[in-house]
Amino acid sequence: MTITRTLYLLLTSLATCCAALCWSCTAKGTAAGAGTVTDSVVSTEKSEVFSADSAYAYVARQVAFGPRVPNTDAHMRAGEWLASELKRHGAVVVDQPVTLTAFDGTKLKARNIMGRYNPDSPQRLLLLAHWDCRPWADEDSDEAKRSEPVDGANDGASGVGVLLEIARQLGIDSPSKGIDILFVDAEDWGSEGDSDSWALGARHFAAHPPVEGYSADCAILLDMVGGKDARFYREYFSENAAPELSDALWQTAGRLGHGERFINRIGTAVTDDHVELIKAGIPAIDIIEYNPSHGFNEHWHTSHDNMEGISSETLGIVGETVMTYLRENY
Ligand SMILES: [Zn+2]
Predict the structure, then answer these.
(1) What distance in angstroms lies between residue 188's CA and the mean position of ligand 1's atoms?
(2) How many angstroms separate the alpha carbon of residue 254 from the centre of ligand 1?
(3) 257 Cα to the center of ligand 1, angstroms
(4) What is the pTM of this model?
């Protein structure tokens, strides 16, 4: 992902696009049902809602494959493993292999992988993260390292790790409505300054859903959710497309005591996978580390985006927040 530099241009087009969107993420559950779940979550069963240690282990497992850059052996093996993990946790797995063309002409053997819970339910929440790694550490201070791929522990693996732990939880206690967990490919083979060069896998998914007539009430994207002491501000495009969903997530985080991490203010506009879903009519938000004082995580697109920068505490805060929202509404 990248910070949107042509901000005004995009804001104008997105505002037009979003004006046509009808907020449909209306699943709120009954007051009694929501209250019951909330009470048990906060007071007695907190450790069972979401395991931060498990999410951390899922991040480490991905990094152990090596950089998951499309067209590499590590990428292929990691993709097989992701599909098998979703299946192991009881999801109906939908595979979407596709060859995509990157901005530099490279043909990318990409693969979107979706795990579905209650596939027949018309009410659906889509959770997604990108699983590929950036081929170049082009933000590294050491020029010699800028042509090397990044480990993507935070940028890629953290969001996937949280979602794999959520899949594990859903395998133990299935949701009453529909949940889809989507790992999108080819997010990070982009060119700075060219907003169309990013999020190729998500764009393909949105234009060619692998399930006929696919739709979701709304979507939550997790990206760079494992950094130490990370702060999550509300993201601009998310705010236009799905303000009620942002409200719900940030309020949930506050109620769980994570208000110092989920800052209830707009940070910036980020070109990321969620924008492709918004364009396709699915209200979507992006939970992404960004701090107005210094931008993305300092290891972003550098050789330092490895396990040393991953905090199980942060994974746990994000995971518990999303999982609590999910349990109360789906
Ligand atoms: Zn990236």
Answers:
(1) 5
(2) 27
(3) 29
(4) 0.89
Which pLDDT score, from 0 to 100, does residue 25 have? 58
Residue 29 Cα, ligand 1 centroid: separation in angstroms? 35
pLDDT above 60 (res 200):
yes
Tens digit of each residue's pLDDT (9 = 90 or more) over 144-162? 999 999 999 999 999 999 9
List Cα–Cα distances, 127 to 15, 31, 164, 179, 187, in angstroms.
Answer: 23, 24, 11, 8, 15
- Ligand 1 centroid to residue 245 C-alpha, Å: 24
Expressed in angstroms and rounded, the spacing between residue 241 Cα and the centre of ligand 1 is 22
Mean of per-residue pLDDT scores for the chain? 89
Residue 1 confidence (pLDDT):
72
Q: Give domain limits for the chain.
A: 2-329
What is the C-alpha to C-alpha distance for residues 316 and 305, in angstroms, rounded to an integer? 19
CATH number for the domain whose boundaries are 2-329: 3.40.630.10
Closest to 320 measured CA to CA, from 287, 296, 291, 295: 287
